[in-house]
Amino acid sequence: MALVDGSSWDVVVLGGGLAGLRAASVAAAAGASVVLLEKQDRLGGSSALSAGMFWTAPDLASYHQRVPDGDRELAARLIAEYETDLADIRASGVNVDDEPTLGVMGDFGRGYSFDVRSYLGILEDRLRARGGEACTGVRTLGIERTDDGRFLVRTETAGGRAQLRTSAVVLATGGFQASPELRAAHMPAVGADIVLRSNPGSEGDGLRLATSLGAGLAGDLGTFYGHLVPHPVTGFTPDRFMLFSQYYSSHGILVAADGRRFAEESRGDEILNQDLAEVDGMTAFLLFDDEVRSTYGVSEPFANFGRVDRFELAVAAGARHATAGTLGGLVRQLGALGVDADQLTRTLAGDVEPSRLARRVSRAAPPTTHQLERLRRGPFYALEVQPAITFTLGGIAIDPGTSALDRAGARIDGLYAAGADIGGFNNYGYAGGLAPAHLTGSIAGRAAARRALGALTGAHEGATC
């Protein structure tokens, strides 16, 4: 059914992923009339494609070490409220692991695996049980401030256009990774043809709408979360996003076409993924030995995921690769694949001068000889990899209460942001996706409901979808 033109709601939430559904359900539970608008034909966003790991930094010191340029005030609030939100997920009845997974993303994070897809359905049910609506196939064309301090949200569906009035808006549209235009504007060092490892609907609607209302930006908009995947790769469909991710890359070395390394690999695959995006051609070969392939290369990246041979899957999908009993033999094969074999020989002997193909070498920690010690036992393997983008890390500037901030740092009354639409929490260094989405969604939903109910907007006027 179509949205009713001219209808009034206490809270309008844009985006139907974890952050949006959590914000909408929390606002409805607080007594606000709520409508959630999702432009795709189904709810869930990229959260529904994830492994379901509810994790972040265990403490502020760990966060600062991993994300030194991050918003520490925002991080302090999210870390403080982590256990409360985890308890809410457990109370919903979905399966949550009893024991935590330690060392998420290397030796850093702490979290719990949970049934995220079932939980998304529970949040939708809670919203509807409280009289709220969740509408799919709705594109938001614009938001305007009205003379009485409220918002006019202009929408379009297959059935036509409608304008909604509201006192509070929560932006949770999932980042701008699916927009080539916004990527070109905000991350020019990243190649235009980077592989999308995400839902296709996160095209920066939240960022566009927020800035149209005067919001400022936070974090480095040139940074993003994702994982290395094979190159070339066929059949890169959502059900294979995690299967093709080379989570174990921190246990090998990465060499560009000139035979040189461009980063210290031990920092983690999600960091290396960003570094490779700023190497000419956006491809490199990941070199590792048999011990790595038989352990880290087949291990579970997350609890309950299952063991798979990632090298074997990549080869079957068409990735360029090489296998040899000795490093010398591997070098010769890579030479035939276009790598500078003479320089690669020097690299393996200890030359750590960064690749001249890297456009922003200063971002990466310089390579060290220590990582070369991981190439110990043959046979040896090489897999060509490329970066993939899951969601952007820079975005809308918010305060710890998730209020959007204008370019001078002042709150924009009634405008909130959550999930991957915000900037500042993750910032090249990565401290989680689902947990920050849920946490900011919780905060934004409560704040938006308080703002709307405090403004005495009244009940909604019978809009349905």
From TrEMBL:
<dbReference type="InterPro" id="IPR050315">
    <property type="entry name" value="FAD-oxidoreductase_2"/>
</dbReference>
<keyword id="KW-0274">FAD</keyword>
<protein>
    <submittedName>
        <fullName>Flavocytochrome c</fullName>
    </submittedName>
</protein>
<keyword id="KW-0560">Oxidoreductase</keyword>
<dbReference type="InterPro" id="IPR027477">
    <property type="entry name" value="Succ_DH/fumarate_Rdtase_cat_sf"/>
</dbReference>
<feature type="domain" description="FAD-dependent oxidoreductase 2 FAD-binding">
    <location>
        <begin position="154"/>
        <end position="428"/>
    </location>
</feature>
<keyword id="KW-0285">Flavoprotein</keyword>
<dbReference type="InterPro" id="IPR036188">
    <property type="entry name" value="FAD/NAD-bd_sf"/>
</dbReference>
<dbReference type="InterPro" id="IPR003953">
    <property type="entry name" value="FAD-dep_OxRdtase_2_FAD-bd"/>
</dbReference>
<dbReference type="Pfam" id="PF00890">
    <property type="entry name" value="FAD_binding_2"/>
</dbReference>
<feature type="domain" description="FAD-dependent oxidoreductase 2 FAD-binding">
    <location>
        <begin position="10"/>
        <end position="62"/>
    </location>
</feature>
